[in-house]
């Protein structure tokens, strides 16, 4: 049986946003159009996807079970459309990549060299942002692609794929910091000293143990603060090796270094051009 992409998108948006009216505003359609699309999908499936007995529709058990599959279908449809668009041609004039400092590697640098050789006249813009800011730049259309630490969930209008290469984080202090001389550091030891962390995003897996804290909006500023001895910090290992070699000491703490999956993301609302589509595929090793 064939299911209307419009019905699937209406269902996914309503499930994410919690109401038909919010989904209608997001999709630029009337609420009745969204309601009818979802009703048609329920008839086609032979299932009730939303409990409409309360003011706000609630996903039924069947709705919860099918939501993930619907998102997979939308993602596959999105990739099919991208491929067709690429075959038709029409190279975009600019590709903007919003990227977290979480990820940096020789593989990424090789991809930049490839895009330079393949599309020499393409304008390439590289933005540095972290986590939710990367997502916002992609959703708003400011960036074609985003690279960020993998998230548990994304909005229905955002497609994602996970890179095979992971990022590595370690705990670091300056060479003159009191913790630098210890062969082994316990988590409790960190409480006695100031932590340095991003003020734009709190990773639940990061060692935020309370106590004193200084913050900054990006990792490079935090690196400078750590080099000056103002506290301990969890940083991408590549960054310390490149910008603070010999000036920082990696702490030996149980659970670190830790590895973080990295996703490439793009918006379904704006079809990727050939260059951005090609770059996404190369980042994924395809």
Describe this structure as you would to a colleague:
The structure is a single chain. This protein is α/β, with parallel strands linked by helices. It contains ten helices and 13 strands. The chain has helices at residues 5-17, 20-27, 31-45, 61-88, 106-118, 132-139, 187-190, 219-227, 237-243, 274-283, and strands at residues 50-51, 58-59, 94-99, 123-128, 145-149, 158-162, 167-174, 195-198, 213-216, 232-236, 248-250, 258-260, 262-267. Helix 1 crosses helix 4.
Task: Characterize this entry briefly.
The chain is an alpha/beta fold and 286 residues long. It is 40% helix and 21% strand.
List keywords for this structure.
286 residues, alpha/beta, six-stranded mixed β-sheet, five-stranded mixed β-sheet, 10 helices, 40% helix, globular
Ordered list of secondary-structure elements with their pairings:
Layout: H1 5-17, H2 20-27, H3 31-45, E1 50-51, E2 58-59, H4 61-88, E3 94-99, H5 106-118, E4 123-128, H6 132-139, E5 145-149, E6 158-162, E7 167-174, H7 187-190, E8 195-198, E9 213-216, H8 219-227, E10 232-236, H9 237-243, E11 248-250, E12 258-260, E13 262-267, H10 274-283
Parallel strand pairs: 3-4, 3-5, 8-9, 8-10
Antiparallel strand pairs: 1-2, 5-13, 6-13, 7-10, 7-11, 7-12
Helix pairs in contact: 1-2, 1-3, 1-4, 2-3, 5-10
């Amino acid at each position: 049986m064939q299911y209307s992409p419009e019905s699937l998108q209406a269902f996914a948006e309503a499930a994410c946003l919690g109401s038909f009216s919010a989904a209608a505003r997001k999709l630029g359609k009337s609420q009745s159009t969204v309601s009818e699309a979802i009703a048609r999908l329920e008839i086609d499936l032979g299932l009730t996807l939303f409990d409409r007995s309360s003011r706000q529709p609630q996903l039924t058990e069947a709705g919860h079970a099918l939501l993930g599959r619907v998102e997979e279908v939308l993602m596959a449809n999105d990739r099919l459309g991208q491929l067709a668009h690429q075959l038709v041609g029409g190279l975009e004039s600019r590709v903007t990549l919003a990227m977290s400092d979480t990820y940096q590697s020789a593989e990424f640098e090789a991809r930049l060299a490839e895009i330079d050789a393949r599309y020499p006249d393409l304008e390439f813009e590289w933005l540095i942002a972290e986590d939710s800011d990367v997502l916002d730049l992609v959703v708003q259309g400011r960036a074609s692609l985003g690279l960020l630490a993998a998230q548990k969930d994304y909005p229905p209008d955002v497609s994602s794929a996970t890179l095979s290469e992971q990022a590595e984080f370690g705990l670091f202090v300056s060479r003159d910091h009191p913790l630098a001389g210890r062969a082994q550091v316990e988590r409790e030891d960190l409480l006695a000293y100031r932590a340095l962390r991003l003020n734009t995003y709190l990773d639940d897996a990061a060692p935020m143990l309370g106590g004193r804290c200084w913050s900054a909006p990006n990792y490079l500023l935090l690196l400078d603060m750590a080099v000056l001895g103002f506290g301990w910090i969890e940083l991408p290992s590549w960054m310390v090796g490149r910008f603070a070699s010999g000036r920082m000491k990696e702490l030996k703490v149980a659970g670190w270094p830790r590895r973080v999956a990295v996703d490439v993301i793009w918006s379904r609302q704006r079809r990727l051009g050939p260059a951005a589509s090609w770059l996404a595929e190369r980042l994924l090793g395809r």
